[in-house]
Amino acid sequence: MENRIKSLIKKLSRLGFSVKPKNSDHVDPVCGMKVSSDLLKADYQGENYFFCSDHCKQQFEKDTETYILK
Ligand SMILES: [Zn+2]
User: Cα of 63 to ligand 1 centre, how many Å?
Assistant: First the structure.
């Protein structure tokens, strides 16, 4: 079963279905994880930020400037 899945993935990547992140994915500014859901969202100075968990969102809100300065 696992081999079937592996060969399917190989076939798909040969056809151009790569595992690259989609443009619609967001990056959690706190932990750097990719976030594909927009349920946990914060607004800061007109920018939207998305989070993987409520914990990261709280960190961001507590210490926003640390996370938006790059
Ligand atoms: Zn996170």
Answer: 14
Q: How far apart are the first and last CA of the chain?
A: 44
* Global pTM value: 0.63
CA of 15 to the centre of ligand 1 (A): 32
Residue ranges of domains in the chain: 20-68
Structure tokens at 5: 């899945």
Residue pLDDT, tens place only, 12-66: 888 887 655 555 689 999 999 999 888 899 999 999 999 999 999 999 999 999 9
